[in-house]
Write a structure and sequence with these properties.
Number of domains of chain A: 2
Oligomer: homodimer
Largest sheet of chain A: 9 strands, mixed
CATH architecture of the largest domain in chain A: Alpha-Beta Barrel
Strand content of chain A: 15-25%
CATH topology of the largest domain in chain A: TIM Barrel
CATH superfamily of the largest domain in chain A: Metal-dependent hydrolases
CATH class of the largest domain in chain A: Alpha Beta
Number of strands of chain A: 21
Structural class of chain A: alpha/beta
């Protein structure tokens, strides 16, 4: 048993912040508040906030190594001239290295669960799965399904496109090998603008396997005109047409979705990525008003350029205020709910709040000058805190980060390897 | 002499990043690059970026204690119902405490120079000046000049309004007492919508004293319609009318300035504050295109809610990309220039770049997983780094922060005092 002792607890799920302790037994939370039980391991939380681990519903593990290699260019060129050609040169060693860098960053900044957006075979998916397993993190991985070289109205770099049936077979085999191993679950993942046939198969397979599915959707304006032109449908109609409009599905971006009426799929809002790529500001306030389950994603290092969900929580909140010229919309509590409760719901994981019986995915934040004084701790977390304020991270009842030290990855060795291998100089020279 | 040894130097001022060392002699930079001289004090920079200290051209020292006390409400209510009434209850002890909290945060996040936006007498300006002097930071303080209770079309809380002549006398006396003491300079500062007479006096006095002036300007839409209605002038015409359209003047906000043609005053762009207060997104790209000297400001803890200029650099860049749906505008280098070179120009201080002869205001950034790999270090700094990545801070040749430890302020004692005094519970109960 582990005791997080005497902190300021932000429980979420409709309950108010309280001073007290959190008792963890095995991989579940046992007690919250005044805890009298004797335990072996204690973490002193007297100057800390105790809160649920953050849930990132849209990340690319294999993009961490591409940080800073595709700044300040539009999405289609970003994919076509930089990210896809560079990733097409990956081998399993680079794939694993990128995943480890990404996971180290996420854990050190308080993310305890992720939904990967789809991995290509050449990244070495088994190697990446082993990295996730060793890290102690909770996450969905998947084989990227991509059966069309067209993206919106553009012909794209074809190196990542594969035969639909072969790819589905591989996705299934990945599920059988890895789903349920350690913190790993296996999802189904597709790129934007696959064929409706593939989307339908994905939808049915997610149901059969009792897992979730994810795809990029309506990220840029042209995505919507493409659906209109190609299928004569609105985005929500197209989702219905492909069997994707249901709670097992998480749609990344949805900047240009338009009217969200009738949308049952979850949305992974990625504000930092959408801002930096000039994609726009998603109408999150309106989606929430229509009852859509909006969650948060950091996307990738070449677009965000970090995997720090604290920064995306903050931006998610203030972006709506600036867009609508109304400071009253999407407050800190709403943003925090998106990154915890809503994320847990989309990913069908029993976490996202601090209450007896919940999975013990818990983090603490150190109170430093820039976080003081604390009035409403939700405000402190969303409007002032950064990933680097995270002090301790517990996933599935295990202490993975203690006092800012990551226990499952040798960060110094990782950094050396990133410096040695990660700059991909020959490959970059070719493309940049 | 101090040597910052073997880092990745981002010199700014048109020069490319280089690997090498920075030699500091007294309060000036002596050499940059390969340094062979023997020195007494060395800072190992092998895994660090060495860059100019950041310059914040719009902050409120007395608002740090009000962090989180005015979230999610519009500017006029924010001022009228929260910030001004709460600040009107300050005494010199609270004024100094707030300034110390603000300065600790700025120094720990790499800001080496600030322009305060105007202090009211009851905050105890001499006490605040002593806090600045002891901290080793470089900064402009000033007596707030405010001779009208009207703000845009609203009648405001009157507790802060003072007689013009009395206030000007006090501003002059402050200048005589403190200008040039330690890192302190004294500026002239006015609120938005003072009388043109006061603005004109300020302009003349800034010239006479060879100092700078600052005011809030065109922060919300109503500011512009007020100028039109009251004076029949556009914002730039009004500045001309009041003698404020010159290089000694820094205008905070300018969200609704409109056409910047002919603007000679500097702009302190405050994106985080403008977003969170729902004021809007300033047309910074267009201002830069017209040759306006745009700088960056964090504003205050009740609106930002931090004093971390790294966050505002990032937001300044991505906000323009999202506003114009164009990822190519305002890149990392532009944002970094705003927070260094442009800031130094506005504040008439010989810093903002790393070159022989410049003032030794230099910071280092630790390369951690979320900053790796480094391709263009400007991208690393603006798109990935946070204030908490700052490792060492040198101001005027003195090491003020070393390996994240602030040497001039006892942070632990400060935090205890903020916890004890800073929550202002009675005062809050009255207003919230």
């Amino acid at each position: 048993m582990i005791l997080l002792k005497d902190g300021l607890i932000v429980p979420m799920a409709g309950r108010r912040a309280v001073k007290g302790s959190v008792l963890i037994d095995g991989n579940r939370i046992k007690e919250v508040g005044e805890v009298k039980e004797k335990v072996d391991a204690e973490i002193d939380c007297r100057h800390k906030i105790i809160m649920p681990g953050l849930i990132d519903t849209h990340i690319h593990l294999a993009q961490a190594l591409l940080r800073g290699c595709a700044d300040d260019i539009p999405l289609v060129r970003w994919l076509n001239e930089r990210v896809w050609p560079l990733q097409s040169t990956y081998d399993p060693e680079l794939g694993s290295l990128s995943a480890e860098l990404c996971i180290a960053e996420m854990l050190l900044s308080g993310t305890t669960t992720f939904l990967e957006s789809g991995l290509h075979t050449k990244y070495g998916i088994d190697g990446i799965a082993r990295v996730v397993e060793r890290s102690g993190m909770r996450g969905y991985i998947s084989k990227m399904l991509m059966d069309s070289p067209y993206y919106a109205n553009h012909r794209m770099y074809e190196g990542m496109v594969e035969d639909k049936d072969e790819a589905m077979k591989e996705a299934l085999s990945l599920f059988e090998r890895w789903n349920g191993k350690g913190g790993i679950r296996v999802a189904l993942a597709a790129r934007t603008h696959c064929t409706p046939e593939l989307y339908r198969e994905i939808s049915e397979m997610a149901e059969t396997l009792d897992t979730i599915a994810t795809l990029h959707f309506c990220e840029i304006k042209e995505d919507v005109s493409f659906l209109r032109k190609e299928y004569g449908m609105s985005p929500v109609e197209f989702l219905e047409h492909c069997g994707l409009n249901n709670e097992r599905v998480t749609l990344a971006h949805c900047v240009w979705l338009g009217d969200a009426e009738g949308l049952k799929a979850n949305v992974a809002h990625c504000p930092a990525s959408n801002f930096k790529l000039g994609s726009g500001i998603a109408p999150v306030k309106e989606m929430l008003d229509k009852g859509v389950n909006v969650t948060l994603g950091c996307d990738g290092a070449p677009c965000n350029n970090t995997y720090d969900l604290f920064r995306d929580m903050w931006l998610a909140s203030i972006a709506q205020k600036a867009r609508l010229l109304d400071p009253q919309v999407l407050d800190a509590h709403n943003a925090l709910t998106m990154a915890t409760i809503n994320g847990a719901k989309a990913l069908r994981i029993d976490s996202g709040s601090i209450a007896p019986g919940k999975l013990a995915d818990v983090i603490t934040i150190d109170l430093k000058p820039h976080l003081m004084p604390v009035r409403d701790p939700a405000s402190t977390i969303v409007y002032s805190a950064k990933g680097s304020d995270v002090c301790d991270v517990i996933v599935d009842g295990k202490v993975i980060v203690e006092n800012r030290e990551l226990k499952t990855i040798d960060v110094s060795k990782l950094m050396d390897r990133v410096e040695e291998k990660g700059l991909l100089p020959d490959r970059l020279a070719h493309f940049l």
